[in-house]
Each structure stands twice: as C-alpha cells, then as structure tokens.
C-alpha cells in the first residue's frame, strides 16, 4: 500500500501539523524510560466496555501526541500500558507532566463516572540499557536493570502521579524551571519486587496538581522543587557539584521534610523562602553546616510566619 493508505491507519497524534509522519529514532546510551498504567482499568472495562473503548482511544492519542512533541520513542504497549524511551530526562518528565495535565482536563465518557479524569500511574528512571530488536515488531526494545527499576517504580506511584528514582531526579537538578517547578514528595527508601536492596523514590506532579501529593500517608508532605541559583550570575547551578556560594529559594508548605537538604519545617501553612550556602555533597562538614543554617532560618521564619532573605 502507498503512504496515503498507510496514514489512514496511523493515529493522528503521530502526524505533525502538516500531516506528515513524525519519525523518532530510538535513543541509545543512557536512556530515560517511562512506564505507564491506567488505574482501575479492569473495573472501568466492567463498568462500560463501550465507554472504556472510547476512553482508550483518547488516552492513546494523548500519549502519542505528547510523545511526538517531546521526542519520545514508543517502545511497545502491553494492554493499556505504555513503555516509552527518551534521550533526555527533561523530555521524559515534560512528557509525563503534559500527559497528566491533558488526561485531567479531557472529556471522558459519562458512563465511566470519571469526575477527575482518567488516572494513570507513571514510573521513570534513567541509566544504561541493553538495546535489542523486537523480532515481532522490528522496533527497538531495551532490557537490563534500568528497565526493571523503571518498571517497578511505576507500581509505587499514586494515581495520577509520576514516581521517579533518585538518579532521575539528580539528572534534572538545576533544571526545575524548565519543568515549571513541579511538586515533589519524598516517599523514602522503598523495596521493589525483584530489585536488590532498597531504592530512594519520589513522587512528582505538575505544580498545578499539588493536591495529588502532600501527606498521602505516613505524615509525608510535598514540597516545591526550585533551582539553586548562583548569586553572581543568577543562573541555575548543579547542586551535586557546586562548592561555591549559592542561593536557593524554596517556597513550600511547612511541617514536611525535604530529605535532599535535611530541611525540617516546623509550622503548618507557612511559606518560607531561604537563601543558603551550598557545599559539595561529598564534603559532609560543609553540607552539615548548611543544613544547620537552613534549620535555624526556617524555625525563625516559621515562628513569625515571615520570609527570610539572605542567611
């Protein structure tokens, strides 16, 4: 069949505004992988097969439209679940956040009773992968520990959230402004089936979906990720490598805990902005001093519901 016939079978999401096919090469080397899964899909199919079939078409179009926009590679689908790959962790998270936003605001079949939209869990990890060709589809597939960790992290996500590993979060450090300063919840060290040891995991959502996080269990609270900014240039810097004087502005709801800096907030509903010195992570003495400064600053600000500037 010719290209025009083939296009009739291709979802419109894979066509650009000029009605041309969008082709994305499979990423190589270190790859950011995303696994997705619809929440309560079996129950929804039982509720209305016709409605769920319509919902699946819309869900798939939303997925593929965002994949095309953010240079994602569709590895495969398994039922209603997607496995997708990106060269850039930033693009992977942009894809996740855009999908969650569009799922929430789309119109779903009334007989499914989806008041808050179709909810999807997502898991994301980045690392070295072993590429292989799927003998059935001819498409690039991946295997190895990175794939396993990305897949298992999806199961730790709350409905409508993205669960990310610490490796993934570190890769986007200093670039949170590109993601719209998303909300992040530290869910601590987690055991994952088939994965040796425990993994530090986080839940992430777009800033406008903060209500999906925050004290969901165990007294955990969400905080806003913002960049550390170099005082002289005003540009974001990498928190993992800097040993110079830097500033961080961190609006957040109090009474939570931000593990990455050891910051403990002490008063509910206070918003605190802190400027601090940041030392290299490997220099524990400097970093401990920074943590102590932040704790003292936040306690002082929270006691007066005030906002601190330079510390």
Rg (C-alpha, Å): 21 Å
Describe the largest sheet.
Answer: 8 strands, mixed
Q: What value does the average pLDDT take? A: 76
Low-pLDDT residue spans? 216-222, 239-284, 307-311
From N to C, what is the helix and strand string? Answer: HEHHEEHEEEHEHEEEEEEEH
Overview of the structural elements:
- The chain is built from seven helices and 14 strands.
- Strand 5 and strand 6 form a beta hairpin.
- Helix 2 crosses helix 3 and helix 3 runs antiparallel to helix 4.
- The longest helix is centred in the first third of the chain and has 21 residues.
- The chain is globular.
- The N and C termini lie far apart (69 Å).
Key phrases:
311 residues, alpha+beta, eight-stranded mixed sheet, two-stranded antiparallel sheet, 28% helix, 23% strand, disordered C terminus
Please provide a brief summary of the model.
With 311 residues, the chain is α+β, with helices and mostly antiparallel strands. It has 7 helices and 14 strands. The chain has helices at 3-7, 41-47, 49-69, 89-105, 145-154, 166-171, 284-304, and strands at residues 30-38, 73-78, 81-86, 120-128, 130-133, 140-143, 162-165, 183-191, 198-205, 222-224, 228-230, 246-248, 257-258, 263-264.
Topology:
Layout: H1 3-7, E1 30-38, H2 41-47, H3 49-69, E2 73-78, E3 81-86, H4 89-105, E4 120-128, E5 130-133, E6 140-143, H5 145-154, E7 162-165, H6 166-171, E8 183-191, E9 198-205, E10 222-224, E11 228-230, E12 246-248, E13 257-258, E14 263-264, H7 284-304
Parallel strand pairs: 4-7
Antiparallel strand pairs: 1-3, 1-4, 2-3, 5-6, 7-9, 8-9, 8-10, 11-12, 13-14
Helix pairs in contact: 2-3, 3-4
